[in-house]
Write a structure and sequence with these properties.
The chain is an alpha+beta fold and about 130 residues long. The chain is built from 3 helices and 5 strands; from the N terminus they run ββαααβββ. The protein has a 5-stranded antiparallel beta sheet with strand order 1-2-3-4-5, with no helix packed on it. A hairpin with a 2-residue loop joins β4 and β5.
Length: about 130
C-alpha cells in the first residue's frame, strides 16, 4: 500500500503524560543494502520467521508456520539466512510535526511545525 500511496502518519500517544506527537510525511523504501544490513543484525530466530512467513497471509494452523521455520532452520544450518525479497523497510520523511498537550479545560495546546521552502514554520493550532 505504501508503494501505491507513499504518504503516512505516525502517532505517539502518552496518556499518563497527557501528550502526543503526530508526524506526517512522504514515505520512501529504504535501499536494499540498508535492509540487508538491518536484517543481518536480527536474531537468527527472527530471520527464520521472516523467511518463513508471508505476513498476514492465512494459515491452516500454527503447525504450518512452525514446520516451515523448522525446515528453513535445517536448510540454513551453518549458513546465513538470506533476507527475503518481501522483507524491507520504509522511511518516513517528516513534513509536519504536531505536538499536543492535554489541558483539563479542553483548551489543549497544539503546536505544528511545518516544512516550507527548506525552513520549519511554527504554528499554534486551535484546540
Amino acid at each position: 500500500e505504501l508503494d501505491a500511496n507513499p504518504r503516512a502518519a505516525l502517532l505517539f500517544h502518552w496518556d499518563p503524560l497527557g501528550r502526543q506527537v503526530r508526524v506526517e510525511g512522504q514515505v520512501e523504501r529504504v535501499a536494499e543494502q540498508e535492509s540487508d544490513a538491518y536484517f543481518a543484525t536480527r536474531p537468527r530466530g527472527a530471520q527464520l520467521a521472516a523467511a518463513a512467513s508471508q505476513q498476514s497471509s492465512v494459515l491452516q494452523d500454527r503447525a504450518e508456520i512452525d514446520t516451515r521455520v523448522d525446515e528453513l532452520a535445517r536448510e540454513h544450518e551453518g549458513s546465513d539466512v538470506r533476507r527475503p525479497d518481501h522483507w524491507g523497510g520504509y522511511r518516513l520523511v517528516p513534513e509536519t510535526y504536531e505536538f499536543w498537550q492535554h489541558r483539563d479545560d479542553r483548551m489543549h495546546d497544539r503546536l505544528r511545525y511545518r516544512r516550507a521552502n527548506g525552513d520549519w514554520i511554527v504554528e499554534r493550532l486551535s484546540p
